[in-house]
Amino acid sequence: MLPGLKPVLARLASGETLTEDEAEEAFGVIMAGEATPAQIAGLLMAMRVRRETVAELTGAVRAMRARMIAIEAPADAIDVCGTGGDAAGTLNVSTAVAFVVAGCGVPVAKHGNRALSSRTGGADVLAALGVLVEQPFERLAPILRAAGCVFLFAPRHHTALHHAAGPRAELGTRTIFNLLGPLANPARVRRQLVGVFAAEWARPLAETLGRLGSERAWVVHGQGLDELTLAGENQVVELSPRGIRTFTLSPEEAGLAPAPIDAIRGGDAEENAAALLATLKGARSPYRDTVLLNAGAALVVAGRAETVREGIRAAEVALESGAALAALEALKRESRPEAA
What we know:
- The protein is α/β, with parallel strands linked by helices.
- The protein folds into two domains: 6-67, Transferase, Pyrimidine Nucleoside Phosphorylase, Chain C (Transferase, Pyrimidine Nucleoside Phosphorylase, Chain A, domain 3, Up-down Bundle); 78-157 and 177-334, Pyrimidine Nucleoside Phosphorylase, Chain A, domain 2 (3-Layer(aba) Sandwich), CATH 3.40.1030.10.
- Helix content is 46%, strand content 12%.
- It has helices at 6-13, 20-31, 37-50, 54-67, 93-103, 122-128, 137-147, 154-157, 162-171, 177-180, 202-211, 269-280, 286-301, 308-320, 323-334, and strands at residues 78-82, 108-112, 149-153, 191-195, 216-222, 234-240, 243-249.
- The strands form two sheets. It has a five-stranded mixed β-sheet, sandwiched between helices.
- Helix 3 crosses helix 9 (162-171) and helix 6 crosses helix 12 (269-280).
- It is globular and about 60 Å long.
- 53% of the residues are buried.
C-alpha cells in the first residue's frame, strides 16, 4: 500500500509512470480525502506534462468505479457520452442520440453533467425539456426499465471526486479527470459510444475500456468535436472481441450530406431543448443528420446494426415513427414523483 502521495510525487517528478495498481491506490488516496490540495495538483500536472498512460487511466477509473454509487441495468444497456472539453458550443448531440437509440429498443444509461466546458450540458437541456434529472438512486433502475432510458447525473454518483474539485479549478487546465468521466458509467455498461476532445486520446481510451472489461466501444473524434461530425473526416477507434482497429468515417461514406460545424452551433438550454424537440418531432436539418450519424454508430456498438448506414436507417425509423419522441416522453413521465 502506498504511504500517501509523497513517494508517488517523487517518482512522477523524475518522469516515472505508475502501474495500474499504483494509480488505483494513488487516486484512492485522493478520493478518500487523504491528500492535500498541493499534492493533488502536483500529481495531476506531473501526469499531464508527460502524458497519462493507459495503466494510469485504468487504475484511476478503477478507483472511481469502486467508490461510485452504481445502479442495476440490463446487460445490453449502452451509454453515449463525450469527454466534453471541445469548447465548440454545439447543440446537444449525445442527449438527442440517447432518445433515438432508446427508440430503437436499446436500453440507454446516459451518463452526463451540467455545462462545464460548453454553454449547455446534458442535464441542462433535459431539465429544460421537463425531465427531473436528480432522482433518488433507488428510482433510477426502475426508470430505465420503464422508459428504456435514464439520465445518470455524474456529480451525484461520483461524490468522492469533490476532494479534487478545488485543485482542478485552480489549475484551470485539462487533467486526467477530463478523460475519466465517460469511463466510469454508474450502470457499468459494457458497450459505449465515447466522444473525445482530441484524436490523440481515442486509442488510449479504447485500450483502457478494453482493460476494464468492455465488450464493444467506439471512441470517436470529429474535426475538433467530441462526437462524429458532418464537417469532415472522423477518427474512430473501435474496441470489439476481435481487438482494436482504427479507421476514418466521412459523412459521405455514411450516406449523409456534409455540413459545417457552424450549422449545429447551439445556445442556452432553452434554445438547445427546442432544437432537440423539433428534431424528435421530425424537423430536418444538419443537426438531425448529425444525430443520425452518431445514433447509427451507437447502434453498431449495441449490436443492432452491422454498418453505420444500416444503423442510420434504423435511427430514421425511430424518428419518423415517433419512437424517439416517445422515449423522451416516457423519461419525462417516469421521472415524475407520482410515477414512483
